[in-house]
Design goal:
Layout: E1 2-7, H1 14-32, E2 41-47, E3 53-54, E4 60-61, E5 65-66, E6 74-77, H2 85-90, H3 94-103, E7 107-111, H4 115-121, E8 128-129, H5 136-142, E9 147-148, E10 154-157, E11 160-163, H6 166-180, H7 183-193, H8 201-204, E12 205-208, H9 217-229, H10 236-242, H11 247-258, H12 262-280, H13 285-291, H14 297-308, H15 312-327
Parallel strand pairs: 1-2, 1-6, 2-5, 6-7, 7-11, 8-9, 10-12
Antiparallel strand pairs: 3-4, 10-11
Helix pairs in contact: 1-6, 1-7, 3-4, 6-7, 12-15
């Protein structure tokens, strides 16, 4: 059983509660209907006690359970309307709970000023973090030992994530869904919620990992080359030789650096390019398939559907409908 908790407190922004909950619920339902066994998932709202809280917009929410020794796999800390100082004192009993959950392996996600609760734990000391732009200065004054990343909307340090805006919360939630389920489920949820406006987690996040042994400069060069040549016929052995690596070393280092095999990375570049063309042009699926590097249109369509739970045609209709609604 994978368990997800959304912490509740007064003056929390309702959207920073409802958005991850709705996206995660969509992932759970998609997984159930996929025909693949993903295990059991439970998502609950938690509070310091059973009293209801009032969001910044005046909506009353009653926690489904009180905090206890029950362990969670993921915990979301919503953003707060106005300065978080009052809530940090009023809800200080969240601090030891967050520390214990993290020590037991939980992923902690702070949305906007929810990062202040994470900072209060001391877990972010000497690590990267971000928060809502309006509270940058206050955050830096209160927590001088934390590395504030003002140019990044998402930060990751170990299993500690911060998201500085509502859009960043959506990006982060897609990433968390991928960690809990897989890329296929996360991309399906992405396409249903914010596909036409979001950037990828890898491109938008500041990643701090103290366990990273080296910079993988050779693999960065490979990735830069692949971004220019992804639509060409690529032979992995020839590619490894081009960068003076054995195939075995190349595959190992690439996987260590990117958490993907070279083949998976190339496929992702091609699918991402196809998504843009389907969204922004009237080009046929056959032309797009060839343009991104797949001569076999049927194979391209199968691969696209496997990754996004949608055919190229249905994907185009979905994102086009969203774009038209945005333009209205």
């Amino acid at each position: 059983m994978k368990r997800i908790a959304i912490a509740l407190y007064d003056q929390a922004l309702g959207t920073s509660i409802s958005l991850p909950m709705e996206m995660l619920q969509a992932a759970i339902q998609t997984a159930k209907g996929s025909g693949k066994s993903y295990g059991q998932y439970e998502m609950v709202t938690v509070g310091l006690n059973s009293d209801s809280v009032t969001t910044g917009s005046g909506i009353s929410i009653t926690p489904q359970q009180e905090i206890s020794d029950d362990l969670f796999d993921v915990i979301f800390l919503p953003s707060m309307w106005r300065s978080p100082r009052h809530n940090l004192k009023r809800y200080e009993n969240y601090i030891p709970w967050i520390i214990n959950q993290h020590e037991q392996g939980a992923i902690i996600c702070g949305a906007g000023t929810g990062a202040f609760f994470m900072a209060e734990t001391g877990l972010l000391d000497l690590k990267a973090a971000t928060t809502h732009w309006f509270y940058f200065n206050q955050f830096e004054i209160m927590y001088p030992n934390i590395s504030m990343q003002k140019k990044h909307f998402i930060t990751k340090a170990d299993n500690l994530y911060c998201a500085g805006s509502l859009n960043a919360v959506a990006d982060l939630t897609v990433h968390i869904i991928e960690r809990l389920f897989d890329k296929r489920i996360s991309q399906h949820v992405e396409s249903q919620f914010s596909n036409e406006v979001r950037s990828s987690f890898q491109h938008s996040a500041f990643l701090y990992e103290k366990t990273l042994g080296h910079s993988y400069e050779d693999i960065l060069q490979v990735q830069a080359w692949l971004k220019q040549h992804y639509n060409e016929a690529i032979n992995i052995e020839a590619l490894a030789d081009k960068f003076n690596l054995s195939v075995r070393s190349f595959n190992r280092r690439f996987k260590d650096a990117s958490q993907q095999t070279p083949k998976q990375y190339i496929q992702q570049l091609r699918i991402d390019a196809a998504k843009e063309l389907l969204r922004d042009t009237h080009l046929s699926s056959g032309y797009i398939s060839t343009h991104v590097g797949y001569q076999d249109v049927s194979y391209f369509s199968e691969l696209f559907k496997k990754q996004l739970c949608a055919t190229p045609k249905s994907y185009r209709l979905s994102v086009r409908n969203k774009l038209f609604r945005l333009d209205d």
